[in-house]
Amino acid sequence: MLKMRSFSVTEVNQYIKRILAADPILRQMIVEGEISNLTKHRSGHYYFTLKDDQSKMSCVMFANQVATLTFSPENGDKIAVKGQISVYERDGRYQLYVYDMEKKGLGALHVAFEKLKKELAAEGYFDAKYKKTLPAYPARIGVVTSPTGAAIRDIIAVYNRRSPLSELIIYPVRVQGAFSKDELCDAIEYFNKRDDIALIILARGGGSIEELWSFNERAVAEAIFRSKIPVVTGIGHEIDFTIADFVADLRTATPSAAAEVVIKSKVEIKMALNRLMMQMAHAAEMQLETNSMRLKNLSPVSMARRYRLQIEHQREMLMGIRQQMASQMQWTVKHDFERLDHIGQKLHALSPFQTLNRGYAVVTTAQHAVQSIADVNVGDSIVVKIHDGNISATVDHLESVTEDLTVAQNGPAALPPKD
């Protein structure tokens, strides 16, 4: 049996690294692909995956090369990078060390994401008026997530730490892959059929746009929009946004953040109860003060003062009415007096005594006024009334002189004055 020399892992990785470094094509090459899982490290380095439809490649770009870029790359950008293929000895994997980068456009998934986002926004799926208010203290919370992922562990950890009064009902689903979108929709529909679920958490750990794509499906967006129960999302990391986040009633950055928001601790509940008790105490004090003021207003002194003021007010009103009535009566009497005086002047002008004052006389017999010679006979006694007295006479002659005598239409005959 031939004996072979053994190598350490480090020696093998170093050997492979020397082989790759000796290849002139791998020392400097341009690779095109789409950025995924981009991490901008606090040191300034960029770590990301370059992918196409079939494969992926790990890449790193150090801070001194990053500083030369004229744009800020993002997940989904289609780029062309120039770099060198080498082995990262510690992990025993090859990666592309990038020293230049050029933007080519958006990847296919990001184009589809923006297209669906625009369509749903136009249809009103993201409108604030459709957002439901979260219950302050949900008794039962439905959790839709993978039963084996980091998301459920984070949610349970928050649940245990906050000493909750709520109950978690977990609906296990696949959160990526061909069937995951249907399972997500079924879970949301299941909780909506129950009458004891107050709120739904839709959660998943971080990942690339491909891994989070189930939460960018129209079917999932429609299921969230149709839900009568408020939906809170905690999907990926803080920088990750999905279509589900835009449709949900509340978006949180991570699964842990979603649990922190909806699961109230005993401390928070106690603080809320204290606030409520303080509000009730303040309201009671205000009510007592109001009732005390009312009682004071019902005391004999207060009531006498109030009624005295009312009586004074009524008296002033009556005095005003009295003055108005007196003024009205004075005006009415004056008006009627002037009218009667005017009528009296007219009657006075028509009085037969005025006719007598002008030199005329009125002739009467014992029975009636004489209006015609036919009213008397020779020998009849008559009375001639003038302005300063009466003259008694006897008729000794009758002569018709009607053409010279003015006779009033319905009044006594008048003799013309003497020359």
Automatic annotation (TrEMBL):
Keyword Ribonucleoprotein belongs to the record: no
CDD domains assigned to the protein according to its UniProt record, in alphabetical order: ExoVII_LU_OBF
Domain named Exonuclease VII large subunit C-terminal: residues: 125-329
Gene3D superfamilies per the UniProt record, alphabetical: 2.40.50.1010
Location within or outside the cell: Cytoplasm
UniProt GO molecular function: exodeoxyribonuclease VII activity
Catalytic activity: Exonucleolytic cleavage in either 5'- to 3'- or 3'- to 5'-direction to yield nucleoside 5'-phosphates
EC number: 3.1.11.6
Signal peptide: none
Alphabetical list of InterPro entries matching this protein: Exonuc_VII_L, Exonuc_VII_lsu_C, OB-fold_nuc-bd_dom
Residues of the OB-fold nucleic acid binding domain: 7-102
Protein purpose: Bidirectionally degrades single-stranded DNA into large acid-insoluble oligonucleotides, which are then degraded further into small acid-soluble oligonucleotides.
PANTHER family: EXODEOXYRIBONUCLEASE 7 LARGE SUBUNIT
Subunit structure: Heterooligomer composed of large and small subunits.
NCBIfam families: xseA
Family: Belongs to the XseA family.
UniProt protein name: Exodeoxyribonuclease 7 large subunit
